[in-house]
Design brief:
Elements: H1 26-56, H2 59-66, H3 68-83
Helix pairs in contact: 2-3
Length: 98
């Protein structure tokens, strides 16, 4: 069998490579994976902290539920992620119809 069996781990790739044609080092790849997991974990932790504060401080839900300012702020916070998007830049070519 030319090149070996990838599933069995006997490919013709250099020693330590995860797949044939792998150019970057496995250490660099694992460092990126660790970095991504750290960022995701911190985002999840921050979300849990904000949710806990909103649940534990009774004035926050009362403000959003009982005043027009709270309702306006709630609607603004829902729309805020869409405001910063630059609509003047063309879409990537992968999103254009063929």
């Amino acid at each position: 069998m030319k090149g070996g069996d990838i599933e069995a781990g006997t490919s013709a790739a250099p020693a330590g490579a995860l797949y044939p044609g792998m150019a970057e080092s496995p250490e660099l790849r694992w460092a990126l994976i660790r970095k991504i997991y750290v960022i995701l974990s911190l985002q999840l932790l921050l979300t849990a902290v904000v949710a806990a504060v909103v649940v534990k401080v009774p004035a926050i839900p009362h403000f959003f539920a009982s005043s027009y300012a709270g309702l306006g702020l709630y609607i603004f916070l829902l729309i805020l992620p869409f405001i910063g998007e630059n609509s003047h830049t063309p879409p990537p070519s992968s999103l254009l119809p063929i």
